[in-house]
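I hope you will forgive my troubling you with a question about protein structure. The full record is reproduced below for your convenience:

——
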Amino acid sequence: MIDENLKRYLWTGLDYERYEVIKIIPQTMNFAAIVMKSRNTTDTPWCLEYCGTGHYFDTYEELQKFYFEHFKKRLED
């Protein structure tokens, strides 16, 4: 369940039908990294949305590595 206070970081352009929001991680006052998981087996399983751009990953480990390289922090499970 997503904290109600964090829902302000979500925007209408996210594909909520295909991807479920797993985690919202605030980065600044206006932006958050949003971890999403596919609801469909035909889609790339993991997505990290930030500032209107989606990055897609075949494994959660790949997503974690990208997050660490980009944000210089570990992505908690």
In short: The mean pLDDT is 93. The beta strands are 19-26, 32-38, 46-50, 53-57. The longest strand covers residues 19-26.
